[in-house]
Amino acid sequence: MPEGLALLAGACVAVALLALAGPPPAVPLRHPLTGVRDREVALAAALWGPRVDWRLPAALQLAAGAALGLVTGGVTGLPVLAAGGTVLGVALARSSLRVAIRARVRVRQDAVLEAVRTLRGLLESGGIGVQQALAVLAERGPAALRAEFGALVAAGAAGRQADAWARARAQVGDPLFDLLSAAVLVQRPGGGALGPLFADLEDSVAAIHEVTREAEALQLQARSAAAVIVLLPVVFLLALSALRSPYLDAYHRPAGALFLAGALGVIGLSYLWMLRWLRLPAEPRLAVTDG
Amino acid sequence: MADGMVVVAAAAAGACVAVALAGLAGGAPVPEAVAWLQRRNAAGTQPRLEVVSVLRGQTVPRGALERVEVLLDRAGRPETPEQFLALLAAASVGVAAVGAGAGALRDPATALALAMLGLGGTVFGMLQRLFHGARARRARLLAELAPTLELMSLELSGGNSPHGAIAAVTARTDGELSRELRRLLAAASVSSAASFETRLAALATRLDFPPLAALAAVMATSRDYGSGVGHGVRALAVDLRRAQRRVVIATSRRALTRVLLPAGVGVLLPFMAILLFPAVTTLAESFR
Predict the structure, then answer these.
(1) What is the pLDDT of residue A134?
(2) Does the ipTM surpass 0.85?
(3) Structural domain contains residue A33
(4) Less Cβ around it within 10 Å: N or C end of chain A?
């Protein structure tokens, strides 16, 4: 049996080397750290704008993780719990940052919807064109988007509005704003009534936002309950450690430590599974070309 | 020590098989025009492996291969059914070998059980991933269709023709659906074998995508009977937005029930185990 397996391993290595020397996989394999960095870049941009270095939120999360890891490790004297505390600290810091991002996303969604509503009103009143309506939005539109509309009007005067729309889309990062931008860009050469389109969008997108926010509010209960359940074992172990209970002696032995690591791992994975179930379908961004 | 080496060798074998097949199954991404040329050339040639041509001749394997082909197409994966099945077979055999190697450390029955588990689990996992890929692609296309139809209705309200509206919208957007529609428009304009509407209906069937079939029906009705397209397209877009809303509601309600399983089995059970482990080990030691 061992000889057979060794033979199989050798054959596989040979095939693998042949395959690696041949054509690369159809789906290019990304470096795992590239994905992590991309997520951190997106997080930093959503929180503090694109100019802030992505290492800042990463450092904040790592600091929170290290602090909680040191506290749990110091109180309990269990290396496994110190590792669990580190992961918990990172997760807590990350979820706090995500809550902050979520609040900003809501403000931005409301601002875009208000801009669509104002544009519709201005265009349906007649006697005003799209460029003039954008100028009105730059002056009296939603405060969160005035800078973007101001830049669009300025770029329109210079004849480079397509680039300005691309920059505004990247800054706002909202699917409805993408559609607004695409509608203006599509409408310009051929004409077309933007008013009815914006009326439909206003109704349908407002309804989707309403339902999504209601669902998020409902899910907050489930998330909170799940977080409390997940924290229970950690709190239990911390409390017993603080009381210097000999009940935890079993976890200081290798077998106990291994068991604790396995149980905490299962709890962590189950929590991630729960969060996955609770994730609501988000509308994807619309890829608009500038050509 | 030698047993441990066997496990390592078995694990290495499985990993190598996976790497090898990932390399063999795929090809470097090629430009769209080159891919089209390859497909055209491949259409006239017979499969290279003798066993594949034999399988293609049988009714049941042919049906299975066609089914896999449809699934791969729906998932947007570039490999052929034969490549996918080879990958499936080799990956599952590799995992089964690892399972058998690990089980052989105990007894032959465990080795057999782990091998069967590895084989079945890998087949199930890969097929599940394929189905999930098809569902995910369908959801992506569906999400892209609503704004596409809204922009199309804008173009139609400006007096453009249905084909012109689709061309204008797809020229401004660059999603998966836009690329498919651009391809159909180009094919319909260079070949008179089938109209754009017929091709669109065929694409809807191929991708199992009823809203696209509805769009094809609206456009075909307009072409044959001169009815307006704008109203139909707008109604379709409104329907899709309503459907998105319904999906959010359904997902939200379903999720609250679904989390009960991981909460009960994955969190409460290990918590109880953490609570009881010291007591159980102490009891076990006292009984020794």
Answers:
(1) 92
(2) no
(3) no
(4) C
Contacts of A20 in chain B (CB under 8 A): 19, 23
Residue B208, Ramachandran bin (φ over 0: left; ψ between -120 and 50: alpha; else beta): left
In angstroms, the CA A227 to CA A274 distance is 10
Chain A CB within 8 Å of residue B35 CB: no
Q: Which residue of A has its CA nearest to B244?
A: A208
Q: What is the mean pLDDT of residues A117-133?
A: 87
Residue A112 structure tokens: 């875009």
Instruction: Mark whether B125 and B36 lie in a shared domain.
Output: yes
Task: Tell me whether residue B210 is in a domain.
Answer: yes
Residues B143, B33 share a domain = no
A135 lies in which domain range?
115-203
In a domain, A13, yes or no: no
Q: What residues in B contact A211, CB-CB < 8 Å?
A: 245, 248-249, 252
Cβ-Cβ contacts under 8 Å, B6 against chain A: 1-2, 5-6
pLDDT of the residue at B124: 95
Split into its structural domains, chain A has a count of 1
A88 Cβ under 8 Å from any chain B Cβ: no
- Worst-scoring range by mean pLDDT, A33-37, A112-116, A143-147, B66-70? A33-37
Q: CB-based contact (8 Å) between A193 and chain B?
A: yes
> pLDDT grade, residue A65 (50/70/90)?
very high
Examine residue B278 and state whether it is found in any structural domain, yes or no: no
- The structural domain count of chain B equals 2
Specify the pLDDT at position A22. 47
Residue A277 to residue A182: CA distance in whole angstroms: 33
> Which residue is associated with the tokens 């596989």?
A12
Same structural domain, B235 and B113? no
Bridge partners for B173 per DSSP: A288
Each residue of A207-233: b (16+ CB within 10 Å) or e?
ebbebbeebbeebeebbeebbebbebb
Chain B residues within an 8 Å CB radius of A5: 6, 9-10, 13, 97, 101
- Give the domain range for residue B123: 2-133
- Is A46 inside any structural domain? no
Which of B103, B133, B163 lies at the terminal end of a domain, its last residue? Answer: B133
Of B139, B155, B270, the CB nearest to A266: B270
Could you tell me if residue B189 is inside a domain? yes
pLDDT digits (tens, 9 = 90+) for B11-25: 666 666 666 565 555
